[in-house]
Amino acid sequence: MRAVVYRETGPSSVLEVVDRPVPEPGPGEVRVRVVRSGVNPTDWKFRAGPARGWDEVSPGQDGAGVVDAVGDGVTGLEVGDRVWLLLAQHERAYGTAVEQTVQPAARVTRLPDGAGFDVGASLGVPAVTAHRALTSGDVGRLGPTRLAGRTVLVAGGAGAVGNAAIQLARWSGATVVSTVSSKEKAGLARAAGADHVVDYRSEDVAARVREIAPDGVDLVVEVAPAVNNDLDREVTRNGGTIAIYANNGGEELTLPIRPTFSKNLRYQFVLLYLVAPELLAAAQEDVTAAVAAGALRVGADAGLPVHHFPLEQAAAAHDAVEAGTVGKVLLDVAAG
Fold it and tell me: Which of 156, 308, 325, 332 is most buried, most CB within 10 Å of its CB?
């Protein structure tokens, strides 16, 4: 089988396509014939960072394809099932940038009928991260009415996680406000379903959000806490939650104690790779339900343009994500 690998960390030029034996699933594992492999910022960051303890690594946390072999003890998955993958390269040498990948059954989820492989490969890290952010505090699970009556502020609604957060929050009944940095990104946030879009480069964000939610928003999904915390604190209601999933704009966050605790604020930090298995399972179930309902989509009309690269151009795909390409970057591993 063809596989994209690197043997030493560094720039995208360390990636190469090689032939490798087809792996066999062990107990509790399934093998998936990969159709699409999703590329996330973590993929290029892992590739460019310190060595990971394997002689060879194939990147790719997310993907979608078809089950073609099942190990002993696996229930709920069968050969021929269309599936999406989560954390495929976490604590493993081989992810989804391969023609066939072996994964623990818990990381493999059936893809609803009617949902394409582009959607399936775009879930994983973005959608499950968004789910964890939206279920911060007292929500627990998502569903068609779980966020009814609540207002959610999504920072950076044109990004992959922001897009998923908008779509999942709207599916769950919330009013969604999103901040963006341009007219183009405003259009994407609206396409994703945001009820209100605020351009932070040209508008007074705090004033606009207070017009929309006079008592403050219930939840903030935050991508840049180091630069946005004063704003978040100002626009979040008493007892609200600020959920942080990235460190864009700075590595340190300083909180003024009295203004923060006087509003009884809750901070939730989300790092997907250390989320408890039962919480991941809940997210997989809810995300799949949203996909089945047609509420979680990809493409320009859903606010997330898709950019396809052949497997042989994995380096260019990594470069596109590192350069901040707006939308979702996918590797076409097989036809489908």
Answer: 156
Taking residues 152-176, report their average pLDDT.
97
- What is the number of residues in the chain? 336
Confidence bin at 205 (pLDDT 50/70/90):
very high
Same structural domain, 215 and 323: no
pLDDT of residue 335: 84
Strands of 40-107, DSSP E: 62-70, 82-85, 100-104
The radius of gyration of the chain's CA atoms, rounded to the nearest angstrom, is 20
SS3 of residue 95 by DSSP: coil
Rounded to an integer, what distance in angstroms lies between the CA atom of residue 37 and that of residue 164? 18
* pLDDT for the residue numbered 154: 98
Q: How far is CA 258 from CA 226, 233, 261, 262, 265, in A?
A: 18, 11, 5, 6, 11
Residues 85 and 166 in one domain: no
Domains: count for the chain? 2
Per-residue pLDDT of 27-51, as tens digits, reads 999 999 999 999 999 999 999 999 8
